[in-house]
Amino acid sequence: MTAAPTYDLGKLHGGLRLEANKSASTAQAILRVPVPAQLVLPIAQHVGDPAQPVVGIGERVLKGQLIAEPDGALGAPVHASSSGKIVAIEPWPVSRRYGENAPCIVIECDGEDRHIERAETAPAYDILPPDVVLTQIMQGGIVGLGGAVFPTAQKLMQAVSCELKYLILNGVECEPYISCDDALMREYAREIVGGAQILLHALELDSCFIVVESDKPEAIHELIDVLADVNDDRLVLKQVPSIYPSGGEDQLVQLVTNLEVPSGGLPTDVGCLVQNVGTAAAIYDWIINHEPLVARVTTITGDGVARPMNVDVRIGTTVADVVNFVGGYTDRAEQLIIGGPMTGKTVTTDRVPVVKATNCILVLSEDPALGPEMPCIRCGNCAAVCPVQLLPQQLFWYACADEEAKIRSYGLTDCIECGCCDLVCPSHIPLTFDFRMAKARYREMADEKARAERARLRFEARNERLEKQQKARDKELAQQKEVAKLAGPEAIAAILKRKKQKQDED
Ligand code: SF4
Ligand code: SF4
């Protein structure tokens, strides 16, 4: 991969023009990976708390059946992606950014791929109240398929309370090697456009931009055809130049609307809601075809696999099974990355399952590490390419010194971990990795603080409850004494008898 810094990219600051490396995987149509012998479904495939399993070991399940229900405000359900028997609920290697193992529900597939009963006709969603459509979206287990895996329904619900102007469908797949959205737009443009219409109804909006890079002529052609067919003037196709990372939410908003998302803010702060094209297609599949999010299109590519391509794969299929399907590893295979070369994570085993976030399985022959790390020479390259206009060299300095207040004041939380700074750093400093680690560290500390605060509140509430119960008991005793004083020894005997009867009953 070659990288040349670019300093004038129209409305965007920084960014890089990178070699695309996508032609190998887009040379053929999407192929469907068959049902594997075993599916491994993590219960945490979204940003919130893990879902809670609602099935037990030995239980038989059908495709589309709920197997874990959401827990907490940012939860998302998990559904079985084929029929079979639950054989384990146990930790399994996963491709998470900050951990190696996570609880998974393991299904031994029966190969029949039997679906849970579902309606045969498509519902007229447009006569349903928007909030009902939002609730339905929540039940489909749909999360942002661009990589953020934020539960879609919650994102939509948060957005409806803002003054929204535009829905932006993100088809800008600017990271090298990844081509699943391109393939989806070429072959499922109708589903994407249908998903956009459902979203417009749910959000009560009348303006949607579908945004694609100008170097994707096939996708553009398909979308133009479908848009002409549906003839819906709320939907507008926009083309943008292919510059990494123009597909970042804030960058895309700026490219399309010229509105700048404030530091620490969200696109909704400037009236925009961004959804990935794959998410729109998943919404269509769920609302129209009653198919929850049990499969996705993902890219498998790199010179380490025999036949790079895009595959339609069930969630829970292991990477090993996907690699087998495309003809296995080549002799050159040296490293396995889940995601793209810029934002992906290197994993050490192909036992990890494809999850809702898996947009790419990249097998490369050489380690892209650029060379030994050296001290910062203050060249300023990193700041010049940073799309968020941060000062990565300063962030790095404060990350090393573990100065949380300083690093925050330099905008750590605004860093989108795009990796541009790494690519242009002549000292080969793994800046993005350090920023990721610092974010994880501070997030953990904040979580720990929140947990301690919740424990304190629980402790105080318990003490208050016990105190109230004690007061109530004291009051009752005082009243009984008072009655006894007035009524004499018979009344005392009656009270004691009642008390004994109550104790016996208890
Ligand atoms: S990784 Fe963060 S600091 Fe580096 S260029 Fe990207 S946004 Fe800027
Ligand atoms: S690019 Fe590397 S060497 Fe140059 S200022 Fe940034 S961190 Fe320092």
Describe the protein in words:
- The protein has 506 residues and is α/β, with parallel strands linked by helices.
- It is built from 14 helices and 19 strands.
- The chain has helices at residues 130-139, 152-160, 180-187, 189-203, 217-230, 249-257, 277-289, 319-325, 381-385, 392-400, 404-409, 420-424, 431-487, 489-505; strands at 3-5, 16-18, 31-32, 38-42, 52-53, 60-61, 66-69, 78-79, 84-93, 101-109, 166-171, 208-213, 235-240, 272-276, 295-301, 309-314, 335-338, 345-347, 360-364.
- β17 (335-338) and β18 (345-347) form a beta hairpin.
- α1 (130-139) packs antiparallel against α2 (152-160), α3 (180-187) packs parallel to α5 (217-230) and α4 (189-203) packs across α7 (277-289).
- The longest helix is centred in the last third of the chain and has 57 residues, at 431-487.
- The chain is globular, with a radius of gyration of 28 Å.
- It binds iron/sulfur cluster (2 copies).
- The site of one iron/sulfur cluster has 16 residues, from α12 and α13.
- One iron/sulfur cluster is lined by residues 385-388, 390, 392, 415-421, 431-432, 435.
Structure keywords:
506 residues, alpha/beta, Rossmann fold, 6-stranded mixed beta sheet, 4-stranded antiparallel beta sheet, globular, binds iron/sulfur cluster
